[in-house]
Design a protein that fits this description.
The protein is of the alpha+beta class and about 150 residues long. It has 4 helices and 7 strands. It has a single domain, classed as HSP40/DNAj peptide-binding domain. It has a 3-stranded mixed beta sheet with strand order 1-7-6. It is elongated.
């Protein structure tokens, strides 16, 4: 049987399993790692919205007191509220850093305090000590349970 005279050329060296690791150059050697914002918070919000997850008590619950006069309680009122909600920082996307530096807008926390305005419709004939509970789903923020306590003066 004749031996191939070109078998020792560099082209055939790459076919040989024993020399394959040495012969193949690392094509990612000069690549730069680029970090992308975490989507963990987004996935949790989508899962909760789709599956109807409940908002746990604790830091995701806000309590507000609404003071009404006797006339407003008797006739009903629409009360504006501004809720402080923890949201995702728009500068760093919630990562807390921009490239390798801490985000200056959120001081590296990844969170941003969003003031979300809402209007609460208090029905006519409400009494002192009545409570209203509802959820607020603001864009770029975590879902928040709101507990409104009515105080009639």
């Amino acid at each position: 049987m004749k031996r191939d005279p070109y078998r020792d050329d560099p082209v055939f060296e790459m076919r040989d399993v024993t020399h394959a690791a040495e012969a193949v150059p690392d094509c990612f050697e000069d690549e730069v790692a680029i970090d992308f914002p975490s989507v963990e918070g987004l996935v949790e919000r989508v899962r909760d919205s789709f599956l109807g997850g409940d908002v746990p008590d604790g830091p995701c619950m806000l309590t507000h007191e609404v003071r009404l006069s006797n006339g407003e309680a008797r006739l009903g009122a629409i009360v504006p509220l501004e809720l402080p909600i923890k949201g995702t920082c728009h500068c760093c996307g919630g990562r807390g850093e921009v490239w390798t530096e801490p985000c200056l807008a959120c001081c590296g926390s990844g969170d941003w305090l969003v003031h979300h305005p809402i209007r609460v419709s208090v029905p006519a004939g409400v009494s002192h000590g009545a409570r209203f509970r509802f959820r607020v789903l603001a864009p770029h923020a975590i879902p928040v349970r709101v507990d409104v306590l009515v105080a009639v003066a």
